[in-house]
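Structure (tokenized):
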């Protein structure tokens, strides 16, 4: 079986889910949480690698 990269920990295939940005299922999605300013609500969304790069999203697990 393949499915691992060495070191990066970010581009592992096999994490299959719905990307909320391009609105389709994709491999390599990560949890990205968004805070709605003024409402105090947090939305948990998933973004694929391409959309994270395109929109400058940071996976929640990668934040300090
Ligand atoms: Zn996407």
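Design, position by position:
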């Amino acid at each position: 079986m393949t499915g691992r990269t060495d070191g990066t920990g970010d581009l592992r295939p096999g994490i299959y889910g719905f990307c909320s940005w391009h609105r389709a299922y994709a491999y390599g999605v990560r949890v990205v949480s968004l805070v709605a300013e003024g409402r105090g609500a947090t939305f948990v969304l998933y973004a694929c690698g391409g959309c994270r790069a395109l929109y400058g999203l940071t996976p929640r697990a990668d934040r300090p």
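Reviewer-requested clarification: Residues 28 and 49 are 6 Å apart (CA to CA). The two ends are 32 Å apart (CA to CA).
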